[in-house]
Amino acid sequence: MRRGLIGRLLGAHPVGTAFVTPYVVFLAAVFAYPLGFAVYMSFHDYFFAAPGAVVERPFVGFDNYVTVLSDPAVRRAFGNVLIFLVINVPLTVVLSLVLANALNAAIRWRTFFRVSYYVPYVTASVAVVGVWLFLFNSNGLVNSVLGPLAPDPSWLVNSGLAMPTVAIYVTWKQLGFFILLYLAALQNVSRDLYEAAAMDGAGRWKSFLNVTVPGVRPATTLVVLLATVTGANLFTEPYLLTGGGGPDGASASPVLIMYQRGIEQGNPDVGSAIGVLLVIGVLLLALIERRFVGKEES
Amino acid sequence: MRLQAGLLAIALAGSLAACGSGGGGAGDAGAAAKARGPIKIWYSNNAEEVAWGKQMVAAWNAQHADQKVTAQEIPTGKSSEEVIGAAITAGNAPCLIFNTSPASVSQFQKQGGLVPLDASYVEERSGDVAQQYKSPDGKYYQLPWKSNPVMIFYNKKIFAKAGISNPSLRTYDEFLATSRKIVASKAAKFAIYPAPSNEFFQSWFDFYPLYAAETGGKQLVADGKATFASDEGRKVAQFWRTLYAEKLASQEKYTGDAFVDGTAAMAVVGPWAIATYKGKADWGVVPVPTSSGKPAAEIHTFSDAKNVAMYSACQNRGTAWDVLKFATSKEQDGKFLAATGQMPLRKDLATTYADYFTKNPDYKLFADQASRTVEVPNVPNSITIWQTFRDAYSKSVIFGQQDVGAALDGAAQKVDQLVKQS
After folding, report:
1. Model ipTM value
2. Which stretch is the leader sequence (chain B) (predicted)?
3. Shortest CA distance to B56 belongs to which of B98, B119, B116, B102?
4. Chain-chain contact of B113 with A54 (C-beta, under 8 angstroms)
5. A262-287 per-position pLDDT tens digit
6. Could A50 and B20 be called an inter-chain contact, meaning their C-beta atoms sit closer than 8 Å?
7. A57 touches chain B (CB under 8 A)
């Protein structure tokens, strides 16, 4: 029987369509539309104008991409974020899994520790950055402890150390969230498997490697992807910790440069081109990660 | 399924097309120029300026029941400029903003967000200094309102602790010798602490005031070309490089106020800071140094001005213009000076408010200095130009990773290109 337009629009399961519609609208409004608009801007000589202002926004092909790719500051920012991800993602996975495992065990003060790890995640970056500046400036606590081993120039004004310091800060700040993901995943690992491993003579370490790690693989895939996506969107930390990407752009991230070019300097077309390249880069990285980390799951 | 996807694609394409056309309409500008009625204005969120703004609005409203002014502090954002830029794009900017940065005027103008003002009133009120605020098309899109001529503040207690009773800070050599003495004596950890961060505007409070003084009032860009890769520019940059290299100034970001905290013995700030320092620092003030030690009466500095602009979203521009004139009248400027200590950009400031300066001698120096201030150049790509300069300055002067002269030359080439772009 031939269905009418409304019937075809609603599909075979109208109730299901009704349920997903709000999410589809949400997705279209806050994701698809801005992304599409960003792509449009990146191919035009585009700037924001007052309503009614007569302005020309000609199509410029790949000009904005050429501008972006020939800008050493942008290239450096992409390199910086790679350094960030290389440090941040593995560190996040290892620390959050180990800590979640420990917090899942029957230890005293378990709730206190869980809350303690989660607090930095829910505290505003602006508030905790002050503490890190106190810790990592040249007269800070870290250098006082290190004494003559303290780096010169100090952490946040050292070209080689600024980005790793930011990466460690972000790892620490976000750890609580990823611990929660692993804690949830650990609940799904069957107790029987641990008992079987114990029967086979496996110690804690072997049991962790052979039962826990494979048991939480789906969560690991999620943690890797989320850490990559949030890391690639790095902005607040270099802006606040290193005074806008210093020293000499060593901690500048693509989003920070995007903000400078697009918002501060009034070139949203160039900012959009950076954003599109970032999205493509993150998608490629996520595909590679999914291929390696999530292979058994798939 | 294909139909659903198709409908979504059409909806998105339609949205994009609507955005691309920049639709909407601001109405008839000619009619708006004469229209009178209620208007909205924004002023800054500085407590002293808010107090002045409230009394100014109350005074206007008391006399103009049919043309009420509704005023509010500028909405919170990362910076005033971003908030204003967003309001222009959204079409909901107020009629007047008493917090418009001259550096952003070229961008706001390009956005079609500003209304040109009556040149005769602007020039009559501000005199010769008004010329710096004229746009490349010969019109004024901002009324030069108030300045904060930046000078060197020094902490008398720290200087005394270092054994310096009468500081001599006129030449670079004197300034450096004094700085070395302060740090060596451990009276303060640093001699001076300008923000070493990478934001485009930071050079206004380290390089630019000294460059203005060294060159007798030259802007960063003049006649469509960068001016700073000159002997004067190199001298200024090298002076700051020495301060950073000898750790007399810090490369690290500071979260508080280094001058108030006593971490630094000196600061480069304008008279707005006097209220902040009250009861916290026993300060003295001198003009910024020059290499040869020019007399104070010849020293120029950065103006750190904020101006008033009228925005194109305004429908009742007749009232807006009247309010602008009222708020910048001799009477209201006097009230502004008394409330904030900031300098109205009026010609003959010192003589117009002679009584105030007699009663407040601390401010007399700033009034004298206000007649010799240098503004950021009103050129296209102004903020990109300053970021380009800051990047080069940061790399060479603050972090010593490049030769100072080579960095200035490289930045000048880029700036010359940026100035040519519209």
Report:
1. 0.85
2. 1-26
3. B98
4. no
5. 999 999 999 999 999 999 999 999 99
6. no
7. yes
CB atoms within 10 A of CB B338: 14
DSSP string, B227-296: --SSHHHHHHHHHHHHHHHTTSS-SS--SS-HHHHTSEEEEEE-TTHHHHHTTT--EEEEPPPBSS---G
Q: Which two tokens stand for residue B10?
A: 């059409």
Q: Do B111 and A130 touch (CB under 8 A)?
A: no
Identify the residue whose tokens are 């890391």: A231
Give the pLDDT confidence score for residue B155 in this predicted structure. Answer: 97
Count Cβ–Cβ pairs < 8 Å, chain A vs chain B. 144
Residue of B nearest to A252 (CA): B198
- Tokens coding B104: 């952003």
Q: Tokens 């390249």, residue?
A: A277
Enclosing H/E stretch for B40: strand B39-43
Low-confidence ranges of chain B (pLDDT < 50): 1-26
Give contacts of A60 with chain B, Cβ < 8 Å. Answer: none
Judge whether residue A126 has pLDDT over 80.
no
Q: Which of A235, A248, A259 to mutate to test the interface with B (most CBs of B within 10 A)?
A: A248
- Tell me the CA end-to-end span of chain A in Å, nearest whole number: 39
pTM of the model: 0.89
Q: Identify the DSSP state of B74.
A: P
* Residue A90: cis peptide before it, omega within 30 degrees of 0: no
Q: Which of A48, A133, A248 sits opposite B401 (nearest CB)?
A: A248
What is the mean pLDDT of the segment spanning A233-260?
92
Residue with tokens 């500003």: B114
Give the pLDDT confidence score for residue B26 in this predicted structure: 44
> How far A60 CA lies from chain B's nearest CA (Å)?
14
Chain A residues closer than 8 Å to B12 by CB: 28, 32-33, 36
**Length, in residues, of chain B:** 422
Q: Structure tokens of B98?
A: 């008493």
Q: Which residue has the tokens 């049991």?
A: A207
User: Tens digits of per-residue pLDDT, B361-406?
Assistant: 889 989 999 989 999 999 999 999 999 999 999 999 999 999 999 9
Rounded to whole angstroms, the Cα distance separating B109 from B92 reads 16
pLDDT number for residue B166:
87
Residues A82-96, mean pLDDT to the nearest whole number: 97
Kindly identify which residue of chain A lies nearest to residue B401, measuring between CA atoms: A248
Give the CA count within 13 Å in the CB-facing half-sphere of B222.
Answer: 14
pLDDT band at residue A296 using 50, 70 and 90 as cut-offs = low
Nearest beta carbon to residue B112 from set A49, A153, A243: A49
Torsion B163-B168-B173-B176 (CA) sign = positive
